[in-house]
Write a structure and sequence with these properties.
Chain lengths: 377, 405
C-alpha cells in the first residue's frame, strides 16, 4: 500500500500549480468567462509546450507516456486552478484513442493532439440526457465505405473550438439489448453538415449542442469495434467520471483552504469567526469531505490504470464526490457570509463549476444505481 | 500509488479468514469490538466472556494475538500493513478477538516498573488477564483531565477516595487515573496506577463498592465504582507521580486505523441484503427491487468505501512513520456517524422486524447473527464513548486546520 505521490508526481503537481498561477491566474479565468472561445490560442500552445497534452501519449507519438494516475494528478491541479478551456475533454479523447484506437488512428491523431494542433471533445449525450446504452440513438447508416450521421448530441463541452469529436452513434437498431449496435466514431468537427450551438450555462463551461445532418464519416474512423462499441464507451465513461473526480478534488481542496484562511482572519464580535465552534465544526466537516473525496477518487483511478475490476470503486467515487462537492461548496458559502456570494469573490468561480461537474459523467443517483448493480442487489 | 496490500498482508488476510471460518461460530453472543452488548442474564454474559477468551487462546496459539507487540516482549513485530489486513478481515468475519493487550500493554512496555512487566505482560500475551479501566468520572467526561478522584500518600500506600463511571469493574485488576496534586495545572497533578480491585478470593478490596448501570433497553452495560479509603501500594505507580496523564496517552506504533468499523459495516450490508433476499422468497414484497431502497443501500456502501479509504490513510501514514491526528479524528467521527446511520436505516427498512431484540428465539432470524436492531440501539453510544463527536471535530478544526481556540 502506498497512498502517497512519487517524487516525479510531486514535481508534476507543483509545476502544474506554478504554471497555472503564472499563465492562467484568476483574472484570466474571469476574462475567459466573457470570451467566446473560452481559451486563448496562446495558452493552448503553452499547455502543449509544457507537455500536458502529450502527458499520456506514448513517446513514439510525440508524448511522454505517463500513467493515468499522473493525468489524474494533473487534472487535480486543473481543477484547483479552475483552468478554462478544453484540456479535460481533449485529454479524455486522448485516453479513448489510446485505449481503443488502431495503430493508424494513433499515428494520425496523437502527435497532433500532443503538439496542440487539434482540440478534441467527447460528444456522448443526446437530448434525452441519458448515460446508458439506450440513450445513444444518433442515427448512422452505412453507405459504402462511409457512415452517414443524422441527429444531435447535447452537452458537448467545447465543441465550438474542437477539431475532432468522439461520437458514439447507433449503427444498428436497439433491439432487446440497447448495448448492441453502438459504434464509436472519430469525426472531423469541421465536416459538412455539422452545426454547433453554444449554450449559456451557470458554469460558463461552453456546453454545446451539435447537430449532424447527412454527415459523412469514413469507416476507417471507427474507434474500437463497429456495432460493439458499448464496452469501449463504458470504459471511457468510467475514466471520464474518474478524471472528473480528480478535477473536483482539486477545486474542493482550494475551496476548503480558501475558507479556512478566511475564517482565521475575518473578525466579528471582536474575535476571528474561526474561533466560533459552529464555524470550526463546519470546517471539520468540509475537511473530512475533501479528504474522503481525495482517497476514494484515487482508489478508483488507480484501479482503472491497473486494469483491475473497478465498477464499484469508480462509481462509489463519483457518487461521493458529486454529493460532497455540493455540501462543501454550500458550507464554504455559509462561512463566508455575504461577501462569498458576490461576483467579486472567487468562491463563486468554484461553486458554479462544482455544480456543473456534479452531473457530469453521472450524478450521485446514477452512480449509486451502478453501485447497487455492482453489489448484485 | 498502490491501493493494494503487500503480499505478506494479503496472505495473513487469507489465512485469518480461513481460520475464523473454521474455528468460530457465533453462539448467540454479541462480542464484537468495544460495543459488546448483552441481551440476556448475567450468567450468560459471563459465558460470553469465556467464549471470547477461548477464541483468543486459539489466536495465541497461532501467534497472532501479539503479532503487533515488539520482539523484546515476545511479540511478532508485524508491519502496520499486516496488522491492518488482519484486523480488517477479523472484523469482517465478526471474530470476538483479534489483537491482545489492549491499551494497557503499550503503557506498561514504555512506563511500567519491572515487576509490572513481569507480572502482567505474559498474562496479557496469553489472554489470561483483563483489566478494568478507571478513567471517566461523573464530572470528568470530555474533560477527562478534570478528574477528581483523590489519592493521598500515607506511608507506602495511597489512600484513595472518589468515584469512577462508565467502565465495567468486574476484573481483578484496574488501571486507574487519580489526582495526586490539587494545586498543579490539571494535566500535571494526575497519577496513573495499576491496582487490585479484588483479592485472591475474588472479593472486592476494602473500600470498594460497585454498582451496575443498565442501558436504556435494560441491558447491563457499565458499572459505577465507589472508592472509600481504598489502600493501594505506592509501588503501583505507572511511570512517575503526577506524570500519569502523559503515561496514559502513550501509544506504541500499533495500528490505529479503526479499519474494523468499515469492515464490520460492509459485512452488515451484505448480511442485510441476504436477509432481504431470504425474506422476499417468503412471499413478502421484493424490497430490494424498490429504487429508493437500492439507492439507500448503495449510498451506505459508498460511504463505507469512503470510510475505508480514510482508515487506510491512517494506516498508511503510520507505516510511513507519521503520526496521524486529525486523520484519526476523521475516522472516529465519520465511522461513528455512519454506524449509527446504517444501523438505524436498515432497521427502519426492516419494518417491525427492525425493532426485535435478539432474544426471541430461533423463529426470528435477523441479520448479523440476530443483532442488527439491537446493535442499532447500541450505536447511540459510539459517538460519545472514546471521545465524543464534538471533541473529534474540535481536534480536526483546531489541531488539524489551525483554527484559533
Ligand atoms: C441575500 C442577502 C441579502 C441581504 N440583504 C441585506 C439588507 O437588505 N440590508 C442589510 O443591511 N444587510 C443585508 N444583507 C447583509 C446581511 O445582513 C449580512 O450578510 C449578515 O448579517 C452576515 O454578515 P456578514 O456577511 O458580514 O458575515 P459574518 O458576520 O462575517 O459571518 C460570516 C460567518 O461567520 C458566522 N458567525 C459570525 N458571528 C458568529 C457567532 N457569534 N457565532 C457563530 N457564528 C458566527 C456567520 O454565521 C457566518 O457563517 C444581505 C445579505 C445577503 C446575503
Ligand atoms: C458506550 C460508551 C462506552 C464508554 N466506555 C468507557 C470506557 O471504557 N472507559 C471510560 O473511562 N469511559 C467510557 N465511556 C465514557 C466516555 O468516555 C464519556 O461518556 C465521554 O468522554 C463523554 O463524557 P460525558 O458522558 O461526561 O459527556 P460530557 O463530557 O458532559 O458531554 C456532553 C455533551 O457535551 C459536549 N461537549 C463537551 N465538551 C465539549 C467541548 N469542549 N466542545 C463541544 N462540545 C462539548 C459533548 O460532545 C457531548 O455532546 C463510555 C461511554 C459510552 C457512551
Amino acid at each position: 500500500m502506498d497512498l502517497g505521490l512519487t517524487e516525479d508526481q510531486e514535481m508534476l503537481r507543483s509545476m502544474a500549480r506554478e504554471f497555472i498561477e503564472q499563465e492562467a491566474p484568476r483574472t484570466y479565468v474571469r476574462d475567459m468567462e466573457e470570451d467566446d472561445r473560452g481559451i486563448t490560442t496562446d495558452l493552448w500552445q503553452k499547455i502543449a509546450q509544457v507537455g500536458w497534452l502529450g502527458l499520456i501519449v506514448p513517446e513514439e507519438h510525440g508524448g511522454t507516456g505517463q500513467s493515468l494516475v499522473d493525468l489524474g494528478i494533473l487534472m487535480e491541479e486543473v481543477g484547483h486552478g479552475v483552468l478554462p478551456g478544453p484540456f479535460f475533454n481533449t485529454a479524455l479523447v486522448t485516453v479513448g484513442i489510446l485505449d481503443s484506437g488502431t495503430d493508424a488512428q494513433k499515428a494520425e491523431y496523437l502527435p497532433k493532439i500532443a503538439n496542440g494542433d487539434i482540440i478534441a471533445s467527447q460528444a456522448i449525450m443526446e437530448p434525452y440526457s441519458r448515460l446508458d446504452a439506450g440513450g445513444i440513438n444518433l442515427d448512422a447508416k452505412k453507405q459504402g465505405e462511409n457512415y452517414v450521421l443524422n441527429g444531435s448530441k447535447l452537452f458537448v463541452e467545447n465543441a465550438h473550438v474542437s477539431d475532432l469529436l468522439l461520437v458514439p452513434v447507433r449503427t444498428r437498431k436497439a433491439g432487446k439489448n440497447a448495448e448492441n449496435g453502438i459504434t464509436l466514431l472519430l469525426v472531423d468537427a469541421n465536416s459538412d453538415g455539422i452545426k454547433v450551438d453554444k449554450l449559456k450555462t451557470i458554469a460558463t463551461d461552453n456546453q454545446c449542442e451539435v447537430t449532424f445532418k447527412n454527415v459523412k464519416v469514413s469507416a476507417a474512423n471507427v474507434l474500437g469495434e463497429a456495432n460493439n462499441g458499448w464496452d469501449t464507451l463504458k470504459l471511457l465513461l468510467q475514466k471520464g467520471a474518474s478524471l472528473r473526480c480528480c478535477q473536483m478534488v482539486g477545486a474542493l481542496q482550494e475551496v476548503l483552504d480558501m475558507t479556512v484562511e478566511y475564517v482565521k482572519n475575518r473578525v466579528q464580535f471582536g474575535r476571528p469567526i474561526g474561533s466560533f465552534q459552529a464555524i470550526q465544526h463546519y470546517c471539520a466537516n468540509m475537511a473530512t469531505d475533501v479528504d474522503g473525496s481525495r482517497f476514494i477518487t484515487y482508489q478508483g483511478l488507480w484501479r482503472l490504470g491497473e486494469e483491475l475490476p473497478s465498477d464499484l470503486e469508480v462509481s462509489a467515487a463519483k457518487a461521493w464526490v458529486s454529493d460532497s462537492a455540493q455540501r462543501v461548496a454550500a458550507t464554504a458559502h455559509q462561512c463566508h457570509g455575504a461577501i462569498g456570494f458576490t461576483q467579486e469573490h472567487d468562491l463563486q468561480l468554484f461553486t458554479r463549476r462544482l455544480k456543473a461537474w456534479e452531473v457530469s459523467f453521472g450524478d450521485g443517483d446514477y452512480h449509486r444505481e451502478r453501485v447497487a448493480q455492482a453489489m448484485d442487489i | 500509488m498502490d491501493f493494494q496490500l503487500t503480499a505478506e498482508a494479503q496472505s495473513i488476510r487469507d489465512e485469518a479468514r480461513d481460520f475464523v471460518r473454521k474455528e468460530w461460530k457465533n453462539p448467540g453472543h454479541d462480542l464484537t469490538g468495544g460495543l459488546a452488548a448483552w441481551h440476556g442474564d448475567e450468567d450468560n454474559r459471563h459465558a460470553g466472556g469465556e467464549i471470547a477468551k477461548e477464541f483468543a487462546k486459539k489466536l495465541v496459539d497461532k501467534g497472532w494475538y501479539t503479532m503487533h507487540w515488539p520482539k523484546e516482549f515476545g511479540g511478532g513485530d508485524a508491519s502496520i500493513e499486516k496488522q491492518l489486513a488482519y484486523r480488517e478481515v477479523m472484523s469482517y468475519e465478526d471474530a470476538p478477538a483479534s489483537l491482545g493487550g489492549g491499551l494497557v500493554a503499550p503503557v506498561l512496555m514504555v512506563h511500567g516498573a519491572d515487576w509490572m512487566k513481569k507480572e502482567f505482560l505474559p498474562k496479557l500475551a496469553t489472554a489470561d488477564i483483563e483489566f478494568s479501566q478507571g478513567f471517566s468520572e461523573p464530572d470528568a467526561g470530555s474533560d477527562l483531565a478534570g478528574l477528581k478522584t483523590r489519592a493521598v500518600r500515607d506511608g507506602d500506600d495511597y489512600i484513595i477516595n472518589g468515584q469512577k463511571i462508565w467502565g465495567t469493574y468486574r476484573n481483578d485488576w484496574i488501571h486507574i487515573l487519580v489526582r495526586t496534586d490539587t494545586d498543579a495545572p490539571k494535566h500535571r497533578g494526575i497519577t496513573y496506577l495499576i491496582a487490585r480491585l479484588k483479592d485472591e478470593n475474588g472479593d472486592y478490596m476494602p473500600g470498594i463498592t460497585v454498582r451496575g448501570i443498565n442501558d436504556g433497553t435494560g441491558n447491563h452495560r457499565w458499572d459505577e465504582l465507589f472508592m472509600e479509603n481504598w489502600r493501594v501500594p505506592a509501588q503501583s505507580i505507572i511511570g512517575e507521580e503526577n506524570r500519569g496523564w502523559y503515561a496514559a496517552m502513550t501509544t506504541l506504533s500499533f495500528e490505529r486505523s479503526n479499519i474494523g468499523r468499515p469492515a464490520q459495516l460492509l459485512r452488515t450490508l451484505e448480511d442485510t441484503i441476504d436477509w432481504f433476499e431470504a425474506n422476499s422468497k417468503k412471499g413478502t414484497e421484493d424490497t430490494l427491487a424498490r429504487a429508493e431502497i437500492r439507492n439507500r443501500l448503495a449510498s451506505w456502501r459508498v460511504e463505507v468505501e469512503m470510510l475505508r479509504m480514510l482508515c487506510y490513510r491512517v494506516g498508511w501514514m503510520q507505516s510511513q512513520g507519521l503520526v496521524p491526528q486529525r486523520e484519526s479524528s476523521m475516522v472516529k467521527a465519520t465511522g461513528d456517524e455512519l454506524f449509527q446511520r446504517i444501523y438505524r436505516g436498515i432497521s427502519q427498512i426492516m419494518g417491525g422486524y427492525g425493532n426485535l431484540l435478539p432474544t426471541n428465539g430461533p423463529k426470528y432470524k435477523l441479520p448479523v447473527n440476530d443483532f442488527l436492531p439491537a446493535r442499532g440501539w447500541q450505536s447511540i453510544g459510539t459517538s460519545i464513548g472514546g471521545g465524543t463527536r464534538e471533541i473529534q471535530k474540535n481536534i480536526i478544526a483546531q489541531r488539524g486546520l489551525g483554527l484559533p481556540r
